Amino acid sequence: MIRKLLDTLRTLMSVPRDNPKLLRAQYRALSRQLPLMYLVLLLNMWALVFTHLPSAPLWLTLHIPLVMTVVCVLRACMWLRSARRLPDDTQILASLRRTNQLVPVIAGAFTCWSLALYPYGDAYSQSQVAFFMGITVIVCIFCMMHLRPAALTATLVVNVAFVVFFASTHNPAFIATAVNVLLVSLAMLIILQHHYHDFTRLVNVQAQTERLGNENLRLANQDSLTGLPNRRQFFTTLESAMNLAIAEQKRLAVGILDLDGFKPVNDLYGHSVGDRILIMVGQRLQQLAGATVHVARLGGDEFALVLEGDLSDEDLQVFGRTVCEQLHVEFLLVDVPIQIGATLGIATFPHCAASAVQLFEYADYALYQGKRHNPGSMCLFSASHREQLHRDAITEQALRRAVLDKEFFVLFQPILDSDSETIAFEALARWESPELGLVSPAQFIPIAERIGLINRLTLPLLRQALGMARLWPEGMRLSFNLSVHDCGSAESVQSIIDVIKASGFNPACLDLEITETAVMQDIPQVQWAIGRFRKLGCGISLDDFGTGYSSLSQLHALALTKLKIDRSFITGIHLNPASYKIVKSLVTLSLDMELECVVEGVETFEELQALRSLGCTQVQGFFFSRPVTFAETLVWLAQAEVRRGPWDPEQALSSA
């Protein structure tokens, strides 16, 4: 019980050290109120000195008051300086403790001095001493209410001395005054206690609110999965870094990174494994980051980097290669190692971009170019990219204004079998713009895909191709390319089916080509779309086979009829053993899966000979023919003397 009482007393009479927010709030309050307290003390003291000058000795009316004046002025000046600049937490705690220790000394000094004046003077002067002590203790309680132990100490020192001294005078008026002051002090101490609790609670609530605000701010700027800064924080960091780079005329770079082959892994192993891979990617990127490299996750499997400092293009190339190599290292999460890749696009300020927004856009364009031409590597935005971007912007605007039925048309490239007989034609989109002239499909198709216009081209071109192919000899096949958007919704699939049905062309002679990359975008949806086309009787070709990230289990899940080996494996195949082995494996795979195999991009006789040695039975490419018009297909077929029943090319041409 006694220990508990002592602990309570110790808590009341000590400065709290475990609540920095409360200490700072107490310090700010005292820095405003204590100078006022010292001013009141000095004015009251010198008023008391003035009335006792004729009767009291000089050491009481001059020497001691001067010493106490110097002490009070010094303490008041210290607190006034503190009001202008808040010291650190350690200094605040030391200052409050020092104040708590000085209070009994200063209170005792003023009490002893004023009581020493009591014997001098008349009854009015003695009453003034009592008034001085009573009103002073009230001022001290008010001014030090935010530092509870100091207020309690001052009240205790003054009131004990006041009550004991004036009660001993046996003067009823002074005894009543002592009792009155004691009761008022007790009431004020109760009020002080309530006020101190309210003050402490308010400070704690503010601290809790600040902590919650900081936590909300952290969460609002942090990716919840990886713990990296999110998109919002990335742009904040980029703006700050850009302002600093402009002010100090330094170089700045932004990198945007996209994972290669992440979605197939996510689909195959599930989102929990995919999330763990993203976490590990974030950790690997953080290991490469430092004081001048800031990493963020923009969303999905896309990350971003802000690279400060005067890094040369060579430094950025080395850094980019390191990043891509690190993310190509296997992830050990399941029974088998998981391997993905990463493509990184980087743009620099001030060489390429002039603003933060432009810097980000150029880095994104460098990433786009890297994904198209050299996935799994780093691409640095260059002057040629800027020119290409300018051309793309002009092409995009012209594409948006284009009259699709009038400006777009199809050419046809023959597909031949092992006997050099034409068995099919692939329809290839072409665009002749009134503004730009003939635009390469390599230029407008990626733009149309990026801005979501590619599916608007599909129906008119398919309608045009089917209408022409209907006039070919019976059994001649047509191959037509679909984009990822064409298989992305039930409405798009149904529109394509309606066009096929209305064309009069035999669906059994139509091969719809879907790229491997498009399949990987949404396997269940593409699987459903393929099922609808197969039900109609169409063949399904997997285009650009070997360039994506599909697994055998995913290919088996699709109702395919053909595989088309990408032309990137064919160029110089007779000189490149690696390409030769890859194509051999792909051909063997197609045979094992009982699928037809078409090799595209054959441009030389040597390449054709190499493919024939591998057992390739269907080929196409510039070695045989460039894309030709419909009329030229009729001439081609007539010259090749392909006959599948009675057929008159002149009649077909006139009908077209």
- Main β-sheet, in a few words? 9 strands, mixed
Shape: rod-shaped
| SS field, number of helical segments | 24
CATH class of the largest domain, named: Alpha Beta
* Beta-strand segment tally: 14
Q: What is the CATH architecture descriptor of the largest domain?
A: Alpha-Beta Barrel
Q: Helix coverage percent of residues? A: 55-70%
* Beta strand %: 5-15%
Q: How far is the first residue's CA from the last residue's CA?
A: 110 Å
Structural class: alpha/beta
> Average pLDDT value?
84
Number of domains: 3
What would the CATH topology of the largest domain be?
TIM Barrel
The parts where pLDDT drops under 50 for at least 5 residues are: 642-656
Please identify which CATH superfamily of the largest domain we are dealing with.
EAL domain
The Rg value, from CA coordinates, equals: 44 Å
Provide a descriptive summary of the structure in words.
The structure is a single chain. The protein is of the alpha/beta class. The protein folds into 3 domains: 2-214, no CATH class; 231-381, 2-Layer Sandwich (Alpha-Beta Plaits); 394-645, Alpha-Beta Barrel (TIM Barrel), CATH 3.20.20. The protein is built from 24 helices and 14 strands. The protein has helices at residues 2-12, 20-52, 58-84, 89-116, 123-143, 148-167, 172-220, 231-248, 262-269, 271-288, 313-328, 356-373, 383-401, 404-407, 441-450, 454-469, 490-503, 516-521, 523-536, 552-556, 577-592, 605-613, 630-640, 649-655; strands at residues 252-260, 293-299, 302-308, 341-349, 378-380, 408-416, 422-433, 437-439, 477-482, 510-515, 539-545, 562-565, 596-599, 618-619. Strand 12 (562-565), helix 21 (577-592) and strand 13 form a beta-alpha-beta unit. The radius of gyration is 44 Å and the shape is rod-shaped. The relative contact order is 0.05. The model is unreliable at 642-656 (pLDDT under 50).
